[in-house]
Amino acid sequence: MDEPSTSTSNNAIRSDLVEITLDVHQVVPPPDVSTLQTIKFKLKETFFPDDPIRQFKGKTLKTKLILGAQYFFPILQWLPNYSLKLFKSDLVAGLTIASLAIPQGISYAKLATLPPIIGLYSSFVPPLVYVVLGSSRDLAVGPVSIASLVMGFMIAEEVSPTTQSDLFIQLAFTSTFFAGIFQAALGILRLGFIIDFLSKAILIGFTAGAAVIVSLQQLKSLLGITHFTKQMAIIPVMRSVFDNMHEWSWETIVMGASFLVILLFARQVSIWKPQLFWVSAGAPLACVIISTIFTFVIKGQKHNISIIGKLQQGINPASANMLLFSGDYLGLTVKTGIVSGILALTEGIAVGRTFATLRNYKLDGNKEMMAIGFMNMVGSTTSCYVTTGSFSRSAVNHNAGAKTAMSNLVMAVTVMVTLLFLMPLFRFTPNAVLGAIIIAAVVGLIDIPAAYLIWKLDKFDFIVLLTAFFGVIFISVQYGLAIAVGLSIFRILLQVTRPKTAMLGNIPATDIYRNLHHYKEATRVPGFLILSIEAPINFANITYLHERILRWIEEEEDTKTENSCLQYVILELSAVSSIDTSGVSLFKELKGTLKIKGVELILVNPLAEVIGKLKKADEDNDFVRSDYLFLTVGEAVAALSSATKSQSQTIEEIE
Known about the structure:
The protein has helices at residues 35-47, 61-72, 75-78, 84-111, 116-121, 125-133, 145-156, 165-188, 200-217, 219-223, 234-243, 250-272, 277-298, 330-359, 365-380, 391-399, 406-422, 431-442, 448-457, 459-474, 477-497, 542-558, 581-597, 608-617, 633-654, and strands spanning 12-14, 17-19, 141-142, 388-389, 501-506, 513-515, 528-533, 568-572, 600-604, 629-630. The protein is mainly alpha-helical. The radius of gyration is 33 Å and the shape is elongated.
């Protein structure tokens, strides 16, 4: 006599219904948890997913104090064990990035329409702050192109950098202060997920568009034009270029084009042979030195070659008294600070995480936000404008063998020496060469392979990328970014309001159920409509889900035969992580609708929050009965098929 099978792996397919003999496991509600405990858990998972308090558990008071100091001042983690060997590596890296930071600092300040000296100030104080508060070993901080462009453009919309230069500088410092406040607040309040709304597609499109705009702005320096548009969009810029052809200077064009070719070639050499990173790192400073000497020798001003002019000597003067916290421009500085702060923060965090992954160490995003925020707050009081981690300088820092953040200190000391003793040497530096340095730096922001990969993976993301790119170059930097972010949020809303659903079928000779459109071998189970909902259920999507499920039921009824009428609708809820009160009402309405049609509603694998709320809402034990709850689709089909067959046999015996 054959023994009955109880193994979950045994199965048998029979006649018109799939019957699989399985052990049926009961669906149990989650243990009772108080409201306070629930709120505490959700707040912890929202704001402290990394559980920073974990390291303090079970430690002595002294150890806790040390760990707390190391958490807020990461320098205390590596400084006690710092060695001469590590310093040698950081010294080489620091001197290398200083050779890049000095010309870039001057160039990016001009990009922000600020005095060039402020770019060097911003390469001195902020790195000192980051050494103490930063947790990245590779990040090299200072001015960056995109934040410089955005800040300069947004302030210049309301204040002239030429006729109101003092006010312009004040607004730049105040905007930097608000940028720092915003950045630090995101880190302190653990709100770093806000910057995640800038998706990879947005960033690639935005940075490429910004790179084009930055490069076009340098045509003023490369062509020797004196009357140039203040607008950023490509059409006004090109119109300004050709309307002022009479101002073009062939001497300036030859010099700018020559050094641009040298810089691009040096960059390409470092790409071909990464071990020659020092070629591209040292090329900007070498170009500045050579062009400055050449211009001085030939007396470039007499040949229509524009030069920087005299630069103020000495370290950063205090600027706390220049911050404006009232008046007509307060709204402008807050808006500029938030926009430039988000862009700076996004770039800094992205660069830091990139190199942390390469060197296999953990980077705390919230601590980095606080470090960058406090860095800008301090910087705004010491004549600095917005700074962050630069990809180009950080790449050089990494390739030069930096071991700790001490390389930033070496860079800062080198810049300090330059500010104290070497500023007169930059007086004859041609503006054309600074323009060439900026173009060579931002060319690397145009990532065509990444854009092509996005095109292959996700066409909607590629549309977002193009929106950001064309929005920046044809409208404006901030509006292009805003439109792209809006489009991404619209996509998220679509995903929320139109969740994915699928009809499941049985993989023959198994108890596995998969999407019928995905797995062609999967077959329908007569009498059953098995649907999978693959998103949280809430007020935003219950109407769609209700209509979509009813449509499936109507389609099923249209195709029914005498031997296979619809008896059960099974909802597979494994992917439904949460549900709100509106979602609970969806199940009540479905239950009532199906009851009229003589069809039963079956729920499979409802997760803790879902089954908990459904149980609480079902006081009459009407639509969440234990015999209509199953852990797997296979168990549900097997149990219900067996019950249906037993009922049929009983009816036949009575008849």
